[in-house]
Specification:
The protein has 388 residues and is of the alpha+beta class. It contains 6 helices and 23 strands.
């Protein structure tokens, strides 16, 4: 299910109010006012002690940006709740992420919720500790297929699609570091290349990959403009999904458990490893269900009042009754619709049942948790044969 962060809802309301205000002001303004929607941007960096001061300042100077923050990911991974406070997240690395898998999972969830992600180099490296992992790869969010070669040379903007909204107003890009042999991932659109021919900008869904390291002063040009263009293009929320199909009616039908039998009904417990002894328990189910069998031992009792209790001198004159005492342990079997059976060795929790009269108290529960009626069946455990 797509999640919409609260800030997206708030910004929609702000946009509607601004548009309404513009209509009311037509009489006194020479032109209609545009809605104001400044972006909040989070830079998630794994770059040791280096800080992206130049990128932070360039973004902050953009008229559509209200706030730029930096999160150090060398030690900690930002939670999804933190990412959702921002409209655009820019991850990059030149050292190991605290957890490439956890960060990749969080960013994939963030994109699912409507966020925009602009990964920089070295997201396209084959170094798994410096390239986003987890769902970012398995669910195919990444814009690049990685390459192993780092190009240490000053390159400038080469061929690019000047008509694309992300590159409008972008006329100069220059940087020192990039991956020279990465390629656009399936589903990505290559928008620009470096002067040396290696890929520079790729678009995939709500992700815009920039194959450049912008964490130091060794870059120049309109990268901040490019990132804001990406936000302008991708930030509006997609059309709401169609009304979901009505949920299926809950399963309230109780399973039927019947035909419960023991063959033989009187038996001796099997010795460990022996093929003889014990009994075969058979039963029938109306649908697939899990059947729980508990065992009770028959014992004498006396009933001085409404309850059958153990015989004591104090209740010697009370009438006799039958008590059923629960034996520790239980048997649980998963059955299919129709006939089912299994061998019961006469042992419970590794201990064989003592000679006497017993009964099972059985109940089946289907996948929805609906219980069957309780079924009780008696059986007897015989004393061991006396060898002469």
């Amino acid at each position: 299910m797509t999640m919409t962060p609260r800030r997206f809802q708030a910004r929609r309301i702000q946009t509607w109010l601004a548009a309404a205000g513009a209509l009311l002001a037509l009489a006194i303004l020479p032109a209609a006012a545009s809605a104001d929607h400044p972006y909040e941007i989070l830079i998630v960096k794994a770059d040791g002690g280096n800080n992206p001061f130049e990128l932070e300042a360039a973004l902050q100077a953009q008229p559509d940006v209200s706030n730029v923050a930096v999160f150090d990911n060398n030690t900690f991974t930002p939670l999804l709740s933190l990412l959702e406070e921002y409209d655009v997240v820019i991850p990059y690395s030149s050292t190991d992420y605290a957890s490439a898998t956890n960060l990749g999972n969080a960013l994939a969830n963030y994109v699912d919720g409507g966020g925009v992600v602009v990964p920089l180099a070295f997201d396209g490296t084959t170094n798994v500790n410096r390239s986003l992992g987890g769902r970012w790869i398995t669910d195919e969010y990444r814009p690049w297929l990685p390459g192993p070669t780092v190009d240490f040379a000053n390159r400038t903007l080469g061929a690019y699609d000047a008509s694309h909204p992300i590159l409008q107003g972008v006329t100069a890009l220059s940087a020192w570091y990039r991956i020279s042999d990465l390629t656009p991932a399936p589903g990505s659109t290559l928008l620009a290349s470096w002067s040396g021919g290696s890929p520079l900008v790729a678009l995939k869904g709500r992700v815009v990959g920039i194959n450049a390291r912008l964490g130091s002063e060794e870059w120049s040009g309109n990268f901040a403009k490019l990132i804001v263009n990406a936000a302008n293009l991708l930030y509006p929320q997609p059309a709401p999904p169609a009304d979901p199909a009505p949920a299926p009616a809950p399963d309230t039908t109780k399973p039927t458990l019947d035909k419960l039998s023991f063959k033989p009904n009187a038996f001796r417990p099997a010795t460990p490893g022996a093929k003889s002894g014990g009994t075969k328990i058979s039963y029938r189910l109306s649908e697939a269900a899990t059947v729980r069998f508990t065992i009770q031992r028959r014992a004498r009792g006396r009933k001085p009042g409404r309850k059958c209790v153990a015989p004591r001198p104090s209740n010697r004159g009370a009438r006799n009754c039958v008590r059923w005492l629960k034996v520790r342990g239980q048997i649980e079997r998963t059955g299919v619709a129709g006939s089912n059976s299994f061998r019961f060795t006469g042992r419970l929790d590794g201990l064989k049942l003592a000679p006497g009269s017993y009964r099972t108290v059985s109940v089946a529960a289907d996948a929805a948790g609906n219980p069957s009626a309780v079924v009780r069946r008696g059986f007897s455990v015989l004393a061991p044969k006396v060898r002469r």
